[in-house]
């Protein structure tokens, strides 16, 4: 017989009291009395319960007033990182599901629509609760870089899956015995996928137990792979920081050039032609110069201004 100290502590959080009542009874029955299931209707009360009594697993809804499920996950992850977190909801969008996993949820499950569905819920929760505890320390790292995480896994010769979420993308990096063997993000795989993940401006990561990806798309020493990814990231940042090309403004002439250009045009343009002589009339002599100086045509000028020459 399971004693009270040996029972797994489960906390259900949902703003629907009818759902809480039926879920609590079904999970207690399916666990054979091995689970101590408690309930609370809000995120605020859930945080108080976690503060006052240790809990092994919390299962919560997404759409709750005041403090929704995604926000509650973030608080639990920061203050109680050892607690297993499962989202149990019926109206979560794809964006909400991705946000829940990013905030630290181990699973996102749909609420059963019939009683038989609770057997699947119990099996999933029991699998999480019965998983062997890993040796070492557990906690939350803030503002750590992905290269640092990869380096720690490779130096320790670990085998793991590094699941990375950021900028609306989700990727996985497979590390086997300290060597990176496969990467995938979206439709991209291999070294390009690794570079894309390391170029993300921010996000979150989770270390998962290693599973064989079924293919190996990355080879080479992890040190070289990280150096190459750093080079790609630097080139991308330099390209983003480079000023955009703009048309070169046309250079306007200065005042002296404008004056000279105007004078040259005036001197090159002929004046009004003299009227032709009438029959029997001699052609009129050209008018006498009005001064003892005559202007030199602009093309013989040696400067920007017309040059005069004494006659």
What would your notes on this structure say?
This protein is an alpha/beta fold and 311 residues long. The chain is 36% helix and 20% strand. It has helices spanning 17-30, 43-52, 69-79, 94-102, 117-130, 146-155, 190-198, 222-241, 255-268, and strands at residues 8-13, 35-40, 57-60, 84-89, 107-110, 160-166, 169-176, 179-185, 188-189, 204-209, 293-295, 308-310. A five-stranded parallel beta sheet has the order 2-1-3-4-5, with helices on both faces. A five-stranded antiparallel beta sheet has the order 9-8-7-6-10, with helices on one face. Strands 11-12 form a two-stranded antiparallel ribbon. The chain is elongated and about 60 Å long.
Please bin the fraction of helical residues: 25-40%
Question: What is the β-strand count?
Answer: 12
Uncertain regions spanning at least 5 consecutive residues: 251-269, 291-296, 298-303
Tell me the β content.
Answer: 15-25%
